[in-house]
Design goal:
The protein has about 170 residues and is an alpha+beta fold. Helix content is about 35%, strand content about 30%. It is built from 5 helices and 8 strands, in the order ββααββαβαβαββ. The chain has a 5-stranded antiparallel sheet, with helices on both faces.
Length: about 170
């Protein structure tokens, strides 16, 4: 578990399912990605994948919980998603962050992502990567603040993305 001034980051648990369904089922969440909302079944598989990362690798995505309210804010961390983007991408842990639309614009993403990266750098220091839709300026700003640099463009699930890399 990691604590920041406003958040608690912890590995996902089954009780996160409803918060994940609300976030990944919200069309507004996808406004900067071109992707479509996920079904409850897809979210269930996502949750199990998140939980499995901790067993398989000793690292994964954290649920981000608001300290004051206990509200599910989103998630962040690093994962091995096997996206099929080639060895310059797929062989490195991939950073990910997602904040519910109701909590966006409050600085939660940077606060959570920075804390997750600080933990990962201390426990598993290595190159990390991420992909971001070119129109997603807020996520690009978060990536830049963490030291990510663009290194290639790619197509993922029919959508153009920019690949970024970061060295601790």
């Amino acid at each position: 578990m990691i604590e920041t001034p406003r958040l608690i980051l912890r590995p996902h648990v089954l009780d996160d399912y409803n918060g994940l369904c609300a976030m990944f089922g919200d069309p507004d969440f996808y406004r900067l990605s071109g992707l479509t909302p996920q079904s409850p079944e897809e979210v269930w598989h996502r949750l199990l994948r998140y939980m499995g990362h901790w067993t398989a690798f000793g690292w994964g995505l954290f649920a981000a919980i608001e300290k004051d309210t206990g509200r599910f804010v989103g998630d962040t961390g690093l994962a091995d998603f096997h996206r099929g983007l080639g060895p310059t991408f797929d062989l490195s842990p991939e950073a990910a962050w997602a904040i519910t639309p109701a909590c966006q614009g409050r600085g939660y993403a940077l606060e959570a992502v920075r804390a997750a990266h600080d933990w990962f750098d201390a426990t598993h220091p290595q190159r990390t990567v991420c992909i971001i839709d070119p129109s997603n300026t807020p996520s690009q700003k978060v990536a830049s603040a963490l030291g990510y640099k663009a290194f290639a463009d790619a197509t993922y699930k029919g959508h153009k993305v920019t690949q970024f890399e970061r060295y601790p």
